[in-house]
Amino acid sequence: MKTVLILALLVSTFSIDIQAYAAAAGSFQDEIQKGDPRKGIELFTGLIEDMPDRVELYVLRASCYQQVKEYDKALADYSKAIELDSKQPGFLVGRGTVYEEKGQLEQALADYSKALELNSDWAAAHQGKGRIFRIQKNYEKAIEEFSKAIEVDPKEPTTYAWRGNLYLQKKDLDKALADFSKAVELAPGNPNAYRMRGIGYLWTKNYEKAVIDFSKAIELNPRDVEHYVGRGDAYYHIEKYDKALPDYESACQLAPKNVEALLGRARTLNQL
Prior knowledge:
Order of helices and strands: HHHHHHHHHHHHHHHH
Mean pLDDT: 89
CATH topology of the domain at 1-85: Serine Threonine Protein Phosphatase 5, Tetratricopeptide repeat
Shape: elongated
CATH architecture of the domain at 1-85: Alpha Horseshoe
Largest sheet: none
Number of strands: 0
Number of helices: 16
CATH class of the domain at 1-85: Mainly Alpha
Radius of gyration: 23 Å
Helix content: over 70%
Structural class: mainly alpha
């Protein structure tokens, strides 16, 4: 795990009890795997007391605060890291993501832009700007930023998914499907990539392929209502009502108030 490797590098340069901190790092790794970032907060707080000038510790603790949605504390830690080292674009991107999660879009955009002033090839900053422009419905600028991110880092699947979603909204379906297919290629274990491509196939009326993609999404994540609704829609359009109905039923069980699932079930029952 990156956290443990970073801690090993940090403690190797200080005359402190290395074995104790290595054990703490191992404990933190165990807790993170269990989904308990608060243990990380506890660990990094202790390390910061001993090494208050180690910028990496503030970044690591900020990440833990962000996971538990203590955004103000995360912002404080990222800001401290930036104060200690103002030349690291990654710190600005990290703070930008916190602002973004808080809905403070202008502050987020400012941090992403500042990161790109430091390094114009920082893919995460381009992607961050793309997300902000998307929320602001400035779709052309969003596509431009996602495209820049892809140019810098062509192996990041989420960027293709974001851009594909925008192409879908613009009804540029060939480009949307190409991006979703690339996301699937890069992240074959991600159910969302299959779901998005399945939606693209629905829009292009390629219902058999939509069934295949939504089925794969269900296999990877059987708890997502949208996967069942999507496959139900595909079955409905090819008049396989006996297969559409169980999917809408499953969706209703997962989300009893989901409008699309309820409407899908109703119209399918009307066909039987």
